[in-house]
Amino acid sequence: MVKFFQPYELPVCEYCHEEWSWRVSIKKMFTLNRAMSCPSCGKEQYQTRKSRIRMSQLVLLSNLVLLINAFFDFYWWEIVLMYVAIIVTGFILMPYNLKLQNDEDLNLW
Ligand SMILES: [Zn+2]
Q1: Span from the CA of 107 to the centroid of ligand 1 (angstroms)
Q2: Which residue ranges run through the membrane (predicted)?
């Protein structure tokens, strides 16, 4: 599970090698455009394939809560609390999973 969150580094622009701040990374990730322009050099950056896979694993991980629920008797609010905790943690960790490259990866997976 630990490998999903590694490396614990903020994304670095492949062009100018400038590190993106947590806030910038979140903002760029939530724009619908796949191309993310670097705040320091303005070049377009794309998320790497590996980094996209890691993010989808993070989403899958959140569904483990439902699986756990099948084995234990939780109250509904305990499930809600777990979900909120996982979503918040996932959100905080998202920029650390973002890896950038200069070219767009045209293969989806
Ligand atoms: Zn840059």
Answers
A1: 24
A2: 58-75, 81-98
Q: What separation in Å is there between the alpha carbon of 6 and the centre of ligand 1?
A: 22
Q: In which domain, by residue range, is 76 found?
A: 9-101
Query: Does a structural domain hold residue 66?
Result: yes
Total structural domains in the chain? 1
- Residue-wise pLDDT tens digits, 62-95: 777 777 777 887 888 888 888 888 888 888 989 9
Count the neighbouring beta carbons within 10 Å of the beta carbon of residue 73.
Answer: 6
Around ion ligand 1, residues with a beta carbon closer than 5 Å are: 13, 15-16, 18, 38, 40-41
Least confident of 13-17, 31-35, 68-72, 84-88: 68-72
